[in-house]
Specification:
two-stranded antiparallel ribbon, single chain, alpha+beta
Length: about 425
């Protein structure tokens, strides 16, 4: 029998029991719907979180002293930052590179003192696209490169210190020789991000003023923050940069610089894939039941076909074709049903703030999580879901196909 005739027969066989076929198609549609939206939600959410973490700390790839990650001291620096920036900027996937000095400082006023983390930046290199906390600048403005006295504080930190805009604050740190040095700043801006750890413990300083205070050379910093166009290429860029810059400095991908966040994401992604595997298993069980019951109901028919010359292979091919048609129809309908909700969640999103009882947002490993959920699936994951649905459906038809191909005509023809 020709392939097109076999396909026509398989299609007609499916619709002998419309209710069963519709229920099976519905299960495939439901599985595709859940898998696509869950995966798209996961892809977008973790991409946003990783990008936010990069913008909040040292970039997707951080170039720093090999010992700085284990012992972040201001004496562990990298030199010749201009050359390193040129090397990093030459990488095809690199968008931005910014040099920074980061560490711990003690902030003091006439009334109180608090410890905080500081990031010394060059306003010409860093902006909201590379340093996300600048999006929370609710009062004042960014200091310029020539403003040696400028300082921006987290809003809660400023409240704890009892100071506001234009007030002076002394910041104390340890220089390259281990001596305690102090600088004077005047509050030029306040930051409110929604993250308690950031708002209560961050200070931004002009990098040239900090270099002079710490005794750094003009081309010296504690790190270069490298930002790339797609966080999935982080390891590739880090490897290329490491080969280019040599062993005196190290290029760390974000998941090594922030292992807690990486572990959290890996755990959540693994859990999501297990959930989707369970969904596919349940869908496959439903499909197997449909096909197997259909085969058992048609055993006499298969016996007659064997008696008139059909081979076991042809009967098995017929059942597998029915499975393939179910898979193709279910996946196509699943994509149609998913298209509307996917488009809405991709463009508009869904606000999760109402689910947060304190209204303060969520934080994981020091990273403020977005409260608006969007979806955007990676193409390879979409293909993986389609392939998994197709394979699950076809595998569900293997045993029924074998059963149909091994009927005994002399026994099954006598069935009533």
């Amino acid at each position: 029998m020709r392939g097109n005739s076999l396909a026509v027969m398989a299609w007609r066989n499916l619709w002998r029991n419309r209710r069963r076929t519709i229920l099976t198609l519905s299960s495939i549609v439901f599985g595709v719907f859940l898998s696509v939206l869950f995966t798209a939600m996961q892809d977008q959410n973790w991409a946003d979180t990783i990008n936010l973490a990069a913008r909040l700390s040292g970039g997707h790839v951080t170039i720093e002293h090999p010992e700085y990650l284990d012992a972040p001291k201001l004496s562990l620096t990298i030199r010749d930052t201009g050359r390193l920036k040129d090397i990093a900027g030459a990488e095809v996937h690199v968008d931005r590179v910014a040099e920074r000095i980061s560490g711990q400082t003690m902030l003091s006023t006439a009334g109180d003192s608090f410890g905080a983390g500081f990031i010394a930046i060059d306003p010409a290199q860093d902006d909201e696209a590379t340093l996300s906390i600048l999006e929370g600048l609710v009062e004042g403005e960014m200091f310029d490169a020539t403003d040696a006295r400028g300082i921006i504080l987290g809003a809660r930190l400023a409240e704890n210190l009892g100071i506001g805009m234009g007030k002076r604050v002394v910041y104390t740190m340890t220089d390259v020789n281990g001596d305690i040095v102090a600088g004077l700043g005047r509050v030029s801006g306040l930051i409110r991000t929604g993250s308690p750890s950031v708002d209560g413990g961050i200070a931004l300083l002009p990098i040239d003023a900090v270099r002079e205070l710490l005794g750094y050379a003009p081309d010296e910093a504690t790190q270069l923050a490298v930002f790339i166009d797609d966080q999935r290429r982080t390891d590739l860029v880090a490897e290329n940069l490491q080969n280019a810059i040599g062993a005196s400095t190290t290029a760390l991908p974000w998941h090594r610089a922030q292992p807690e966040l990486a572990a959290f994401i890996a755990m959540k992604v693994g859990g999501a894939w297990i959930m989707e595997a369970i969904i596919m298993l349940l869908v496959a069980a439903g499909i197997f039941n449909t096909i197997f019951v259909g085969v058992m109901e048609r055993m006499r028919e298969f016996g007659i076909l064997r008696a008139i010359g059909w081979s076991p292979g042809q009967l098995g091919h017929l059942v597998i074709t029915e499975s393939a048609l179910l898979a193709a129809g279910g996946i196509a309908l699943g994509l149609l049903v998913t298209a509307g909700p996917y488009w809405y969640l991709n463009r508009v999103g869904f606000d999760l703030m109402g689910a947060l009882t304190d209204g303060q947002g969520a934080e994981v490993a020091g990273i403020a999580m977005t409260t608006r959920m969007y979806v955007d699936i990676y193409p390879e994951n979409a293909l993986m879901i389609g392939g998994a649905a197709l394979c699950a459906t076809l595998l569900s038809g293997v045993y029924p196909a074998w059963k149909a191909g091994h009927v005994d005509p002399t026994e099954t023809i006598r069935l009533v």
